[in-house]
């Protein structure tokens, strides 16, 4: 019985003009190449190659077998592609949009649990709330994690978007553990007006809107040190005493070298929402909502 490996070996011998060339092309050892050729010649009951000082060439019988080998190999490749498409169609694709600070807490757990329940392929998009909502509206993601704050709630079309509040937590100021501010139990916002602030690269990001509004109440604008959403960069700058950041506890829970200070004046709460299109009814998307809600309850995010 002919095998695909035998056909591959014969094709590579013809292409490279030598057994050694075929061995290199296929990643086989010379004994393996010789074995497959001998077996093929035995099946065909014909000599298929001739070797000389000028190289290796196929015999007339070898040419006939090669023509059929190419057809067999092409059909085998086509079959593999068709099967791959079927396997892909049989799996579930779930596209999740998330902002970094909370996505890093909720998404890894959710992906692991989804994989245990479904044959799912998750695609992640990291963006800020306005970008995630636009991608949801455009159909580029299936579900998302977004945030707002209680004094300026999200304006969502309830006929199109299903939204569930996962948790809410107050805004606090992140300061370096070795700074003078870190010695306080709470801080008056007026004391922060001259501090260098680390702000978002996205102009309408929630914490920036809260910061700008709070400064405006004192007739001031934030003194911006840098615009970044890279949590590692924010942590490095704050821990080294270069700047401060308006954030929430869930975003920086477990980070060393920094401290979160309550602010005397209530700046409001950041609320985190799970959103999906109301038309989205895939089991994985519905399970995603349940998993995230349960995880939040287990971790008691509301009490952070």
TrEMBL record:
PROSITE patterns: HTH_LYSR. Coiled coil: none annotated. PANTHER family: LYSR SUBSTRATE-BINDING (PTHR30346:SF29), TRANSCRIPTIONAL DUAL REGULATOR HCAR-RELATED (PTHR30346). Keywords: DNA-binding, Transcription, Transcription regulation. The keyword Nucleotidyltransferase does not apply. Pfam families: HTH_1, LysR_substrate. This is DNA-binding transcriptional LysR family regulator. The keyword Zinc does not apply. Belongs to the LysR transcriptional regulatory family. Residues 2-59 form the HTH lysR-type domain. One of its GO terms (molecular function) is DNA-binding transcription factor activity. It comes from Canibacter oris. GO terms for cellular component: protein-DNA complex.
């Amino acid at each position: 019985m002919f095998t695909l490996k035998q056909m591959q070996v014969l094709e590579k011998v013809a292409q490279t003009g030598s057994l050694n060339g075929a061995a290199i092309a296929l990643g086989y050892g010379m004994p393996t190449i010789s074995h497959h050729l001998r077996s093929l010649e035995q099946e065909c009951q014909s000599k298929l190659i001739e070797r000389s000082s000028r190289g290796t060439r196929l015999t007339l019988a070898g040419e006939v077998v090669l023509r059929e080998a190419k057809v067999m190999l092409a059909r085998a490749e086509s079959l593999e592609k068709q099967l791959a498409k079927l396997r892909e169609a049989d799996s579930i694709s779930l596209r999740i949009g998330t902002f970094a600070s909370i996505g890093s807490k909720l998404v890894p757990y959710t992906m692991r649990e989804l994989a245990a329940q479904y044959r799912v392929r998750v695609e992640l998009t990291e963006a800020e709330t306005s970008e995630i909502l636009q991608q949801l509206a455009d159909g580029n993601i299936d579900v998302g994690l977004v945030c707002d704050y209680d004094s300026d709630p999200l304006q969502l079309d309830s006929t199109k978007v299903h939204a569930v509040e996962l948790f809410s937590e107050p805004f606090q100021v992140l300061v370096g553990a070795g700074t003078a501010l870190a010695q306080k139990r709470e801080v008056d916002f007026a004391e922060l007006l001259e501090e260098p602030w680390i702000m978002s690269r996205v102009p309408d990001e929630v914490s920036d809107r809260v910061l700008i509004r709070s400064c405006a109440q004192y007739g001031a604008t934030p003194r911006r040190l840098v615009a970044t959403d890279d949590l590692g960069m924010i942590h490095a700058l704050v821990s080294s005493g270069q700047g401060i950041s308006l954030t929430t506890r869930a975003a920086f829970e477990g980070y060393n070298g920094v401290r979160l200070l309550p602010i005397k004046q209530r700046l409001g709460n950041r609320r985190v929402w799970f959103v999906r299109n109301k038309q989205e009814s895939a089991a994985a998307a519905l399970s995603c909502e349940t998993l995230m809600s349960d995880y939040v309850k287990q971790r008691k995010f509301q009490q952070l």
